[in-house]
Amino acid sequence: MALPRVNVVIVGAGAGGGVAARVLSEAGLRVAVLERGGWMSAADDRKDDLRNQRTTALGHPFGPDDERNPRVLVDINGVERQVRPSGPGYCNNAACVGGGTLSYGAMAWRFHPDDFRMRSVYGRIGGGTLEDWPFGYDELEPYYEQAEWEIGVSGDDSANPFKGARRKPLPMPPLPPTREYEILKPAALRMGLHPFDIPMLRNSVPYQGRGACMRCRWCVGFACEIDAKNGTQNTVIPRALATGNCELRTGCMAREILTNSSGKVTGVAYFDESDRLQQQPADVVVVAGAAIESARLLLNSRHRLFPHGLGNRHDWVGRNLQGHTYTGAVGLFEQVTYDDAGPGAGIAICDFNHGNPGVVGGGVLCNEFIRLPYQFARQIPADVPRWGREHKEFMRRYYRRSITIYGPTQEVPSFECRVQLDPKVRDYWGLPVARLSGRNHPKNVETGTAMAVKAEKWVKEAGAIRTWLIMPNLGLSGGQHQAGTCRMGSDPKTSVVDAWGRVHDFDNLYVMDGSVHVTNGGFNPVLTILALAYRNAAHLAREWRHRT
Predict the structure, then answer these.
(1) Distance (Å) of CA 151 to CA 82, 94, 363, 463, 478
(2) Is 284 exposed, middle or buried (0-12, 13-18, 19+ CB in 10 A)?
């Protein structure tokens, strides 16, 4: 059944989709947002270590549902298997209003200026598809600032000499330092490094009518009980709804992007919360489902003029999947390092984001979020038993006497790391599921290894009596920081969207999420996703005014 026409239909109410809804509805456009999940809160998220989003052991409190949403993973040996959201290899993002911004760790990084010009800095890398972005850091800087102030970021990066220029400081001061911070900062200074307070999408003081962080241990992977963690669900989406121009529909699974006989995009077909097939006509469609699901939707949307999916004339949709190679080091200490003050992560260095001899790029290094006991048990060294008395004794002694230095590294994207439609497996609604395949580029393993060694030096200087490395591997990288499957570029033969996120071959189809990233930086990417959505949605609003 066709519904009343809107100006814009947005698929996904996460980081990009939430910002786009705010910008477009406040510009006067009529907007419908389709979100496959629901409105969730801390009340839906019991403080259960085994069930939170980060451990993926007993399901995801914020979705998607295990039984309705399988995927197929093809490992580096060519062995394929079905995977569920609560299992390894699924590369899950939360499915709910706010998406991953409801339960993330909330680090709010601007990319380094050289992150936008990796091909120029490092040249062609064999077996990779390293390219520059179609614009640089300066183009995005005002929108980074807009995201920081409108959604709310605390921290202080003034001591980071490697950052790009900024016009305004962060709107909130950092949280008070933890015991780990006070151990790590003087060690970094002795090494000649430049430690500073991590920018966080988290209130350190009351901000925009919501209170300050209460420093609980259940943060990353959980929703905030006092609404001090800032995501699109408690900032821009309420603003969009308040305009009266925006309608948010939950429990809606997009089936395909609709096109007419001439190939023009006309709306979205979706299953509503009662599993009824609906059609939402729209002047413009914005896809914002994150890199795996956005690529899947474009591939599932076929037309006689586009038999391989929309935007896929040159076989680039779903290619270049990235998710960040995380590496680092764990150190054990004689003294207690744990003070139970969340979120735990607080100090970082950017000395090694670029300029590391012999490797491509680098990455930020930070102390890790509070590791709940279940998570710490997964990080113990190989010579410690996984159960029994010796295991318990190790946990009792070192759980409160450990520090992890950790971080995402730059990745060389690969054409063979990809999202496809599985030819056999269907989801609950009968749609082909995402099929994930490929392997991490060897250069990423080299870079990740180099960063792990640097992390170990830092934790040793801080006084660790024993250390071990968290090492990379060649397995597919496509985790919560997923990106790259609808990359930006000026050449339709080697990209999916243009510099404004508009899909080549269409004047009214856009992608506004991390899938448009050409490379994914050496940082958590959410602030860049938010900034891009501000930039590209504002452009779309201007284009709309000129059109009408």
Answers:
(1) 37, 19, 25, 38, 26
(2) buried
Give whole-number Cα distances, 230 to 145, 225, 226, 250, in Å: 15, 12, 11, 20
> Which token pair is 96?
């709910």
Q: Which of 241, 204, 197 is nearest to 226 (CA)?
A: 204
* First vs last C-alpha separation in the chain: 28
The residue to which tokens 């403080």 are assigned: 47
User: Nearest CA to 434 among 75, 69, 93, 94?
Assistant: 69
Domains, the chain: 1-153+201-206+223-324+414-436+476-548 (3.50.50.60), 178-198+325-410+439-475 (3.30.410)
Backbone angles phi, psi at 445, to 5 degrees: -65, -40
> What is the 8-class DSSP label of residue 322?
B
Q: What is the mean pLDDT of each run of 10 residues along the chain (548 residues)?
A: 92 98 98 97 77 54 89 96 90 94 96 98 97 98 98 98 97 98 98 98 97 93 94 98 98 98 96 98 98 98 95 98 96 97 97 97 96 86 94 96 96 97 98 98 97 98 98 92 97 97 97 98 98 98 86
∠ Cα 511 545 507 (to 5°)? 35
pLDDT for position 57: 47
CA distance 231 to 210: 12
Under 8 Å between Cβ of 38 and 250: yes
* AA identity, residue 172: M
pTM of the model: 0.97
DSSP letters for 105-135: --B-PPPPGGGG-HHHHH---TT------SS
Burial class from Cβ neighbours inside 10 Å (0-12, 13-18, 19+) for residue 175 reads buried
Buried-state track 291-301, b at ≥16 Cβ within 10 A, e below 16:
bbbbbbbbbbb
What's the confidence (pLDDT) of residue 49?
67
pLDDT (0 to 100) of residue 324? 94
